[in-house]
Queue: 2 jobs
Job 1
Amino acid sequence: MDPPPKPSTALFDVYLRLRPSPAPGAERFLDVEETEQGVPTYITIKPPATDHRKRAVEKFAFTKVFEEDAAQLDIFKSTGVLPLIDGVLGAEGREGRDGLLATLGVTGSGKSHTILGSKSQRGLIQMTLDALFQSTGALLVDPSNTPYVLPSLAISDVSEAQILPASAYLDSLYGDGQSERGISSRAQTPMLDNTSFLCPPPPKRNNIYIPRPSTMPQTPSVHDLPLPNADRTAEYAIVVSMYEVYNDRIFDLLTGSATATAFKNGQSKRRALLFKSTEQSPDRKVVAGLKKTVCASLEEALMVLETGLMERKVAGTGSNAVSSRSHGFFCVEVKKRRRASGAGWSSSTLTVVDLAGSERARNAKTAGATLAEAGKINESLMYLGQCMQMQSDAADGGKTIVPFRQCKLTELLFSNSFPTTSSSTHIHNQPHHHHRNPQKSIMIVTADAHGDFNATSQILRYSALAREVTVPRVPSVTSTILSAPTTNGHNGRTSPTTAASLAELEVAVSEIDRLSEEVSVLSLRLTEETARRQAAESSWRAAEARMEDIEAEVRETVYAEFEAVLAREQVRWRVAWEEEAGRKEEMWDAKVDILAREFGGDKENEKVRGLDGEEGDGERINELETENEALRRKVEMLEREMRGRTPSKKMRVLKARKWEVEGGLGGSP
Ligand SMILES: Nc1ncnc2c1ncn2[C@@H]1O[C@H](COP(=O)(O)OP(=O)(O)OP(=O)(O)O)[C@@H](O)[C@H]1O
């Protein structure tokens, strides 16, 4: 069997961790093989005695195998987590490299235990955070003390995230209980009581549970380990975000919406996020719109972790409170820039993933949403299995393409595994092109050697870096007969003819053995291939179903949009119609007004005409006035003349006038 590929050739280094069995009395189906170097890398499995199939022995190679007695610190030290941390910190003057750490295994095999720890033991996340904060130490910026840091981090972020200091985030959730949480203290807190770090402490404020760093496990400590060195010429910021993939949709775990609604006994309405290219990250997909917290200390980061875990737990409580029903992603972005340069931040992400347990849908004794959920988990893990198998085939030198775009989970885990040249707009809006190293990935497969043989062997088959099948030689009836001493019954000697036939027979028997062994191997391979074909068929069916879902969703969306547009148009039309009717009414009113005014105006005009006469009256008036004036002047002249005459004359005139008057009155000439 080929040795496991060197870590650098496979996309993932794959480690196997065996958990102490909860049922040690059960038959053990897995054995660890010691190698000459003393580092176990191979295991063999064979079906339990109760399995009536041919007892083929399958041998698997891993980067390293950890047996049941391995402690949390052993896993941390020996699975390459420290080089991952070294990678994200980056060498002096260089950008860091993304890292991924994930666990895979059947339900209850110890994935969460490895990643998140228990009430008394830290998991890989806590130890990783501790190591990161210790390595960066005084090079870390605190956004609360240096106000210019936050805007520059926000500008450099390419994922449309909402970035805020962890202290502000925690205060917004838990109020001002800083002192109670002991955030400002870096001192070691005493070891724990019985409270699980996942179990909520008593309610403190507005009935929201406040996680306390003092109740979180403090061991194992990473103090004595040779921790990676940070770049002394740089300043760092540590930005933490968390999300989960549930039913193939991504949900932010730091919005607190599930927790908040749960406390109000309401139905949580969470908004799914997209994994997409953004304006500032056109070549590389990112989870867009996450809430991200800038953590200035280990305590803050642990509090944020607790808050996200609480959200994940509350959101999943409806289906199963014990088992992880979603794939949990914990992301630590290590932002770095030259010290006091004011330049844009480069970013490397260390993602730690707690995958949901693989579980056969038919085993799930649940129905409805949970069954659908189990189906989705199985589907995404099946796609993950295909990708893992392809990645190990690729490591064998094959030119295989890893089909990682089949579901959200594999897209999130693999899309960053290949070298890319990405362009992004950096600070000061300068387009920035650079070659990104593919992320370094570690998969820890967890297994119970006394557990479910079928489920475990299936996971081992697709996750192992190399595999080999052997069928133990079972002595056949013919060979048993032949192997019996064949002698001449009379003198104990074998005749040459018989000896030749026996030799021929032996060759034939060994050939039969060889062929039957080959048939067994081939039949096992056939079983594997059949399983792969079935998986491919079911993925095809799932894709078809997904397409139908999408089509139905699109139809519904379009129909809803159409209805909305129609309703809007109807309203608009009605308003326009009413406006039009109003305008018409106004117009009629205006016409009536005009008519009324015209009618009234004629009367007025008639009145005016009655005084002034018809159109030519103006002229006549003028004529009359001129005549009048002339007559007045004549009268005046006559009066002046009269005043200038003698009294006798006057008298004569007066008498004559009197006579004229009397004659006029009397009517006689
Ligand atoms: N290496 C180990 N040492 C001690 N206890 C362990 C170990 N691995 C698992 N356990 C215990 O076994 C139980 C189940 O483990 P865990 O929850 O980690 O399983 P899981 O694989 O995450 O399951 P699921 O997929 O359902 O979430 C837990 O109580 C855990 O503490």
Note: Residues 496-612 form the longest helix (117 residues).
Job 2
Amino acid sequence: MAELDDERAYVMRCREALRAMLDGARHNVIVGERVAGDRYSAERLGRHLKSLAKELGEEPDGPPFFGRLDFATGDHRGRRYYIGRRHISGQPGGQPIVIDWRAPVSRAFYRASARDPLGIARRRRFGWSESVLSGFEDERLDRGEDLGETSRIVATEIERPRVGPMRDIVATIQPEQDDLVRSGLDESLCVQGAPGTGKTAVGLHRAAYLLYAYRQRLERGGVLVLGPNRAFLGYISAVLPALGEVDVEQTTVDRILGVRVPPHVGRNTVGSAGTSSHSLGEVDRAASIKHDARMAEVLRRALYARVRKPNEPVVVADGSYRWRIPEEDFRRVVDDTRREATTYSVGRERVLSRLAALLRRQAEIRGRSPNAAWERKMERAVAPFLAVVWPAVRAEQVVADLLGDTSALAKAADGLLTPEEQTAIAWPSPPRSLKRVAWTAADAVLIDEVAGLLERPRGYGHVIVDEAQDLSPMQCRAVARRSAHGSVTVLGDLAQGTTPWSARNWPDQLAHLGKPDARVVALTTGYRVPSMVVAMANRLLSVLGVDVPQTRSFRSDGQLRTQRADGLHRATVAAVRDALSHEGSIAVIAADARLPTLVADLSAAGIAHTEPFGLDRAQPATGTHDREENPPGNNTSEAAHAIWAGGGDRVADPRTSHDRPRLDVPATADPPDGTLPKVQERHSALPSPTHADSSRRPGGTAQTVPPQPHTPDRSDGGHGRVTVLPATLAKGLEFDHVVVVEPAEIAEAEERGLNRLYVVLTRAVSRLDIVHLRDLPISVPS
Ligand SMILES: Nc1ncnc2c1ncn2[C@@H]1O[C@H](COP(=O)(O)OP(=O)(O)OP(=O)(O)O)[C@@H](O)[C@H]1O
């Protein structure tokens, strides 16, 4: 086909041009290293050039473009553009031969339709097999042709095997997604989307778009991506670098609060210093209160209670002189400064400089000419007076003094917390020293709140928050402080809320995030989950009590099987063996408490598998919250998480060391590189990657099958393909084949167990197997 040959020739041209760009970038790295300039710019330039050289070097033979636009009318009349992941220059100074997908003209590729062709006569989509151009598909928009969802190339791409970490979706961004991706930097957005509607993908592509369109404005502040846990971050970590953006910080809310998961939690560590006389239920209660928005005001009062009215004049000696600021003037300085509502530290600085200014004026009246050295001397002289009325403090100290002193707490919480609530969070005795305090994850939000009152934290130009429905009001405030002068993209699904403080509606959550006016948009087309699974999930959705729209699936393929087993573990092993006879990644998901036996059964059956988090098999788990979600009171938060807070040591509590859930924070739970620890068979760094059967199967199947006999294992024994996943870790991940074991246990394992089940059931890309002994807590479409 001559046209295909022409396109292949263009591919060659692009690859040559890319190689020339690579040579140029390498040369620039060398030259750039010699360029004298300020250190900051030199470093940035060097980083940029190096990463460009690296990217270009890594994939000179990858697909250089995925689309083509032939314009017939409008500003681009008569022009043809190839659209790709990155811009490719032709001749130096000449027209680019491939346009970046984020450029303004590329927008038409995603948005044009037969109804509104945006000047385009022909839109061409290219199909690639590995790095070989295998074909293309045209839409003659000028003739009213518009394939929409019937595009074979789009469908193949969406249903393509997902091998490895999450991929970019630049070639197939859908119009409703593109609208969000290209929203301006000044606009804050909230995307409510059912599972698999592409919220995460949209958020990451928006980050890449903003960095392209507003590079200068984002130069200093940058973009921050917040995800629910490090496993999830590992899963998404490759998307932005693949889009050429390596400078985006990706982390968790816990991490920005300084929470880290300590090694060997659950054996000899405990919650806060003062919790030892509480029952576990009370510890839960304490965390819930600490995450409540009312704590913000309690802490503000506690901090500013340190500011005192002066009750003596300032008198300082200066050689033979004695300068004096009358008590009344001193008071006025303190009162005026308080009213100005700056941060505590700025207020303190301001009192100091105002006192120094008053002294200077007196000196000038006496005919002296104070210089800078004199001013510094006076500032040192007034420091002891300042220490009394506006003392320097550390955030941890403020929190410790509040929780360790019931009368201070009663004062600060008056009218805000009930006496019962105050008792729940109070420590029975003050800690002997800050170093002895075993801070909890819930304390971290309090410390961060006070730190934000002392000094504003570093702000970002744009913050993307994924799984935002799970954040507590106080966690939201921590995010808000970091985006006070920037905008946010809030991604979430009220139906997937699993924390005790999960948002029930977006307006309240957005208010806590400091962006009450953010536009709320719903995404309703699912790109992950097959339609019969979506139908089941929609039924469950109707009992979750949240006001969110139902989803419809883009996918017509897929399989759903439910089997009532007479032996749960035998049936599970059989289901996994059956899954292994297909291509693709497999997850076996069960209630956290079931994992140790499940793992043992799979091992006994000789099925190699990866556990994303290690388990303490000695105790069945009873944990009920997402790992690293700061949950209250299942001890994951109050006892099992420790935080960095000025190097506080943890103290052991013999009371809780025997009865805590053992799943929560295993020995290797939080490796520094964001990959998952390997426990048994070590095959993959991620729990994720789907690897679906790519063949399109129109009209997938939903069946109920009787208990299965052992399927002959045509697999490789599971090497690298089977992940055993506790239900609390499934959020945000996807697998080709998912085996859900005993949904009733997942549903009753925690307060929002049905929401958890909703998350678990929506992880499958191609096939979902539900294995159960007990009645299903959901109805399955026939
Ligand atoms: N336009 C698209 N083209 C191709 N793939 C897409 C598109 N949109 C989404 N996907 C794919 O669908 C899957 C689900 O997307 P994503 O994880 O972003 O959804 P989500 O809404 O964040 O899901 P969840 O709520 O379950 O975390 C991913 O594999 C993603 O790459």
Note: The CA atoms of residues 201 and 449 lie 31 Å apart.
